[in-house]
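Exercise 7. Given the encoded structure of a 668-residue chain, write a plausible sequence.
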């Protein structure tokens, strides 16, 4: 009878904790781990490692959402922001086809044979096209006079040295006085980075245009209102257990009028209203005056995405408090006695996700194309709220949701800090209110991550569970995705894993950043209009998510857990068991600046059991500041090799400095 085992060792060296020679390992250096393979510990949740998405850094429009046209319905406060117009162009609101998007443009005859009327869109950092790729152009239009009209649609390169800017073009006859959707597929003939979409009026007769759209045909799952394929693939490749959306601070809004409202994000995409992004005004030093939310990527699309990448959906809704960082005046918030519409939104969302197709909101879901429920299990109310106003606002949500949907697990928050006055106040309040999980956030420097190895060892085992909902190592003076930060994140994550009876979810943040539109860093995945790069932190998250196991195991250094404690040479460790295939996984993180000899001794084996075969996966860099970039996306990636450990009952390894190492082996 064969038993499969996995031992994963993640070794990371830190410049903050060094001892001994940097030239190698002394003969006396020995770190003996005992891994108990016989006694299984706490169950590890399928949601243990996942993803957190927020529309920051152009993560949605201009990023994950594959639409290439900015301000496609002319609803920005400056109606033609993102557009250039020429000739006789008029923005109108009379007789628009979509009540929530009342603006459209009328193109009319310029009254001269050698003049032109039209509009052109700059896209998100350019309307980028790739040679031989197909793009689906669509527009809602009507003839504005007695006779049919015609438009000419072009993908152009204004910097072209060719005889024409025109990359590809098509003519469309607008032949109805009623609003109608017209579609044409354009095949690009060249690569263009800073292109434009240009629309000419191609006849004397006026035409009205609304909801001008351009998508690549090759989207994720081939959907017309689709997502960018390479970015979704990167998410799927992590194998996430949970997907939190639509964000953190954008849920609150700069004010309540601009909070994220899920009901505005479902139904026909043409009738989803524009929303001002909370990050629009936040950073004067990296200011983007055209940063809005089209809501084309809405709650239906988020639920679909969760389903397709195998993650439990975790939506977050407003608790009736606007962003407290931006609003000190209590008048900015909804009084508790006026919360009923917000509470009803939460109840209606559960019905949208889980209700039958005959229910009011279940019918909306079904009409959008998903007859079966999404099987929502979790719901977060509020983001980074603090003070007594948060539990006061949260309490009526808890009562209403528990009464109607007692099986939904509710997620509260411990505020924006990882410790301190508000943190210590909110945790008991969340327990008093009966929250199932508490969302902790920590964007902290290297020293903090090195000091948190024992963080969850003393947490209340009978209280709410932990959701480490937003975290990343922010290097002091090094706010980018350098390798050292990812190693310290790996060290911190061993503490999450060892305490899986308390920690049920963890998600790195933020997820996405456009290289020309970022406001916050570090971030897990960077991209431009055609390329994307998976950072070192991405590969750490992937390593843990794909090797999370089903139960914890005891793995001790001496007689204590390895948590970077005094005398442990900066080592952190955790171990788990995967019941589905008899796999064992052990992770060891070296935060020292030199290599260390490590022995992982397996306890609880039968007398005749030995290792049959093994593989080792390493992520390694001698440069702590090194990072993967769009031009060097594979600078630091996992490397897997077969290792001959046949006949052995333990693993002996010299963990190099700055190394992530994972072992897999079977026993015979």
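Solution.
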């Amino acid at each position: 009878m064969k038993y499969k085992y996995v031992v994963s060792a993640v070794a990371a060296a830190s410049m903050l904790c060094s001892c001994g020679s940097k030239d190698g390992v002394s003969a006396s250096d020995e770190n003996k781990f005992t891994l108990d393979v016989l006694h299984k510990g706490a169950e590890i949740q399928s949601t243990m490692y996942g993803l957190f998405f927020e529309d920051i850094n152009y993560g949605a429009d201009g990023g994950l959402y594959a639409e290439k046209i900015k301000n496609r319905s002319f609803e920005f406060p400056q109606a033609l922001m993102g557009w250039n117009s020429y000739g006789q162009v008029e923005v109108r609101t009379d007789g628009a086809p979509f009540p929530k998007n009342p603006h459209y443009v009328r193109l009319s005859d310029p009254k001269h044979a050698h003049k032109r009327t039209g509009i052109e869109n700059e896209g998100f950092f350019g309307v980028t096209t790739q040679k031989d790729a197909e793009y689906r152009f669509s527009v809602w239009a009507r003839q504005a006079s007695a006779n049919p009209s015609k438009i000419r649609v072009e993908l152009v390169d204004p910097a072209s040295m060719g005889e024409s800017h025109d990359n590809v073009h098509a003519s469309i006859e607008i032949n109805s006085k009623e609003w109608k959707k017209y579609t044409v597929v354009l095949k690009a003939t060249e690569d263009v980075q800073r292109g434009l979409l240009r629309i000419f009026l191609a006849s004397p007769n006026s035409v009205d245009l609304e909801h001008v759209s351009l998508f690549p045909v090759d989207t994720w799952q081939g959907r017309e209102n689709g997502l960018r394929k390479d970015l979704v693939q990167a998410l799927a490749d992590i194998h996430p257990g949970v997907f939190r959306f639509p964000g953190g601070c954008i849920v609150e809004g700069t004010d309540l009028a601009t909070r994220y409202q899920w009901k505005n994000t479902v139904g026909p995409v043409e009738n989803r209203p524009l929303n001002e992004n909370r990050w629009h005004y936040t950073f004067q030093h990296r200011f983007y005056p055209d940063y809005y939310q089209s809501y084309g990527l809405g709650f239906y699309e988020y639920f679909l995405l969760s389903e397709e990448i195998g993650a439990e959906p975790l939506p977050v809704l407003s608790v009736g408090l606007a962003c407290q960082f931006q609003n000190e005046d209590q008048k900015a918030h909804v009084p508790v006695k006026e919360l009923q519409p917000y509470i009803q939104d939460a109840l209606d969302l559960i019905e949208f996700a889980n209700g039958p197709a005959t229910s009011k909101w279940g019918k909306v879901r079904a009409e959008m194309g998903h007859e079966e429920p999404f099987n929502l299990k979790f719901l977060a109310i509020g983001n980074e709220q603090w003070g007594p106003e948060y539990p006061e606002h949260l309490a009526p949500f808890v009562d209403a949701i528990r009464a109607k949907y007692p099986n939904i697990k509710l997620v509260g928050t411990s505020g924006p800090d990882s410790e301190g006055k508000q943190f210590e106040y909110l945790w008991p309040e969340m327990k008093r209110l009966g929250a199932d999980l508490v969302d902790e956030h920590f964007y902290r420097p290297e020293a903090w991550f090195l000091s948190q190895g024992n963080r969850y060892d003393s947490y209340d085992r009978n209280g709410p569970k932990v959701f480490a909902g937003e975290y990343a190592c922010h290097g002091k003076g090094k706010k980018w995705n350098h390798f050292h930060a990812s190693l310290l994140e790996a060290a911190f994550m061993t503490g999450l894993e060892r305490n899986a009876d308390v920690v049920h979810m963890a998600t790195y943040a933020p997820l996405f950043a456009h290289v020309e539109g970022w406001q916050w860093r570090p971030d897990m995945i960077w991209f431009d209009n055609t390329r994307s790069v998976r950072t070192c932190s991405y590969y750490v998250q992937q390593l843990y998510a794909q090797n999370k196991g089903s139960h914890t195991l005891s793995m001790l250094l001496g007689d204590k857990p390895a948590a970077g404690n005094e005398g442990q040479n900066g080592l952190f460790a955790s171990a788990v068991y995967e019941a589905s295939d008899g796999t064992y996984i052990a992770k060891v993180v070296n935060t020292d600046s030199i290599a260390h000899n490590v022995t992982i001794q397996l306890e609880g084996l039968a007398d005749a059991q030995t290792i049959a075969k093994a593989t080792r996966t390493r992520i390694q860099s001698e440069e702590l500041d090194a990072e993967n970039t769009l031009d060097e996306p594979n600078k630091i990636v996992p490397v897997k090799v077969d290792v001959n450990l046949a006949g052995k009952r333990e693993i002996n390894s010299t963990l190099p400095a700055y190394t992530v190492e994972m072992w897999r082996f079977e026993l015979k």
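Remark. The first strand starts at residue 3 and ends at 7. Students should compare their own answers with the one above.
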